[in-house]
Amino acid sequence: MTLTEAREIISRQCSVWELCRNNFEALGRVERRELHDGDGKLITTLLHNPARIASSAAPPASERPCFLCEANRPAQQTAIYHGDYEILVNPFPIFPVHFTISHRSHIPQRITGHIKAMLEFSDIFPELTVFYNGPECGASAPDHHHFQAADFKVSHLIGNNAVAADDNRIEIASDDDNFIIGKFERLLSLLPSKEPEPMMNILASFLDDGRKCLTVFPRRRHRPSCFGKVIVSPASVEMAGFMVAPRREDFESISPEMAKVIIEEVSLTPLEIKNLCSQL
Prior knowledge:
The chain contains nine helices and twelve strands. By secondary structure, it is α+β, with helices and mostly antiparallel strands. The longest helix is centred in the first third of the chain and has 14 residues, at 3-16. The radius of gyration is 18 Å and the shape is globular.
């Protein structure tokens, strides 16, 4: 699917669904603020997007019907079927092209057994980033397995390597999906044990050299200690460098130091990341 085709799908959905149309139009009013450290390095880009409060402060799954199940979705929301999944326009977008890729069955949000499907959706959306939020790492529907896909880019560090790491992420790149799957399954077995699964955010996208790259952000906690005072709940987009602040007071008050602490608190330490990468 090309970017043009993706935009046409969103346009058709917006033409018949007022909530969706209003939220996509509101993206044009989203304010941005770049935060840099003392050396001028970009820490994150703050995005003031009030519509995202529905996801950032979503109620527990036990307190609401599953909004990804067909029976509970708005009548205006249409689906494109692909195997075991449905491609849906996300009515609470962060970016101008934003889809939810929902499993057709109501099964829990888990990555085990589904990483191959995630990589296949990268082939379907070669101009987008496909991402996965763990059930305790920002998934707004931890009760229903899904991916998302959106038009944003992560700054890759892998170069010509097959595996690389920095302070809070590990990247695996290849033109062979089986190589990526094998390395990822090895990484999954090494991550700190946690129920229902090791904590992580995952992104899949293409590099400029044509290889596919899986970026994994291992996590230690769901939310930073400041959550409540500040409504920022890190998920894949935040880990990738776009920090969504639904409330204006947070958008205006978050400093470079606070943004850095937010990401550090939810991530494994650089030493832990380095040790994991050395075992792949």
